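Below is a filled-in request sheet from our internal design queue. Each sheet records the structural input a requester submitted and the sequence that came back. We keep these sheets so that new team members can see what a complete request looks like end to end.

REQUESTER: design group, bay 2
PRIORITY: normal
MODE: inverse folding
CHAIN LENGTH: 258
BACKBONE (tokenized):
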């Protein structure tokens, strides 16, 4: 019969193949290096990032998250400017601020248009809608900035009546700082020209100092965490190396015995 003439198993009788293994989840690109090393998950954050985040609290600013293509340097600067200026800016304002060169030839609407086009290719129109005429460029609220999250966390720490929550907010804020804002970028001249770098420096050193001193007090009373104190001091040192209060905090940490 047909079964006898068939020299192999019928296809419909062959055992089904096991389903493919699910791919491992992608790394949490929104998290800072310190948060990833500490095993932090986004859902554990007090102030989680948006679908896309521009990170300026580091030597080399970048964009992370749901990107369509890798962003160019002008695109990163374009998005960073919008994200640090209430998510909107006019062409005239952007023309005066973007780019390293300060020659008259560099200050053209074409420079802004090119940066906006690069940014839209990376983010998509959902996050950076097209605009025309005299309309300002507007960035979606789903695009976050580490500087904005840092400020919100510091405000939470100041307003919280729960010392544990305030401490947690300061730890999360300091973990967002991965370097001197824009240090390696020659394009972000507006950070300094507009006083943003000075504002960031004051805020970061203030938060790091408060966290370090709180943690040192706890350590001296038999509690606290040496790791948290050490990281707070390291963040403080990034922007205020050699400050007398910082040197004193470093000495206090050395004297603590656990």
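RETURNED SEQUENCE:
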């Amino acid at each position: 019969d047909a079964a006898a003439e068939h020299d192999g198993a019928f296809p419909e009788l062959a055992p089904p193949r096991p389903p493919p293994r699910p791919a491992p989840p992608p790394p949490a690109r929104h998290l800072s290096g310190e948060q990833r090393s500490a095993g932090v998950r986004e859902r554990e954050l007090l102030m989680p990032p948006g679908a896309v985040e521009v990170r300026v609290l580091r030597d080399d600013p970048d964009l992370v998250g749901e990107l369509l293509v890798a962003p160019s340097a002008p695109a990163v600067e374009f998005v960073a400017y919008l994200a640090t200026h209430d998510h909107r800016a006019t062409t005239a304002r952007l023309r005066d601020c973007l780019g390293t060169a300060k020659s008259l030839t560099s200050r053209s609407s074409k420079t802004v248009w090119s940066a906006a086009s690069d940014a839209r290719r990376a983010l998509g129109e959902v996050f950076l809608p097209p605009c025309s005429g005299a309309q300002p460029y507007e960035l979606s609220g789903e695009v976050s900035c580490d500087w904005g999250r840092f400020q919100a966390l510091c405000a939470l720490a100041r307003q919280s009546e729960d010392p544990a929550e305030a401490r947690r907010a300061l730890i999360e804020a300091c973990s967002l700082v991965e370097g001197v804002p824009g240090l390696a970028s020659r394009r972000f001249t507006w950070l300094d020209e507009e006083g943003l770098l000075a504002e960031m420096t004051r805020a970061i050193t203030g938060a790091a100092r408060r966290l370090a001193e709180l943690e040192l007090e706890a350590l001296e009373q038999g509690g606290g965490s040496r790791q948290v104190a050490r990281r707070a001091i390291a963040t403080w040192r990034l922007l205020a190396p050699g400050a007398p209060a910082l040197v004193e905090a470093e000495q206090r940490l050395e004297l603590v015995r656990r």
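SHEET NOTES:
- The CA atoms of residues 237 and 246 lie 7 Å apart.
- Residues 1-16, 18-29, 101-105 have pLDDT under 50 and may be disordered.
FILED BY: M.R.
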